[in-house]
Amino acid sequence: MNYLLALIPLAVGFYTSSFVVWLWNHQNKRGAVGTMMLTLITMAVCFYAIFFRKGFE
User: Fold this and answer.
1) Considering the entire predicted model, what is its pTM?
2) Residue at 34 is within a domain
3) What is the domain count for the chain?
C-alpha cells in the first residue's frame, strides 16, 4: 500500500519537473532552480512520511 501512496508524489514531481524544463527554456533560470529545490524538498518530506515515520500506535 505504501508503494501506491508513493506514486502520487512521483506523479506530481514529474509534472513539476516538466514545468522546470519549460522555465529553464524560457530563460527563467532562477525560477527553475527554486521550483526544483521546492519539489525535491517536498518529495523528500513525503517519502519520509510514507516510508520511515512511525504512525500513532
Assistant:
1) 0.80
2) yes
3) 1
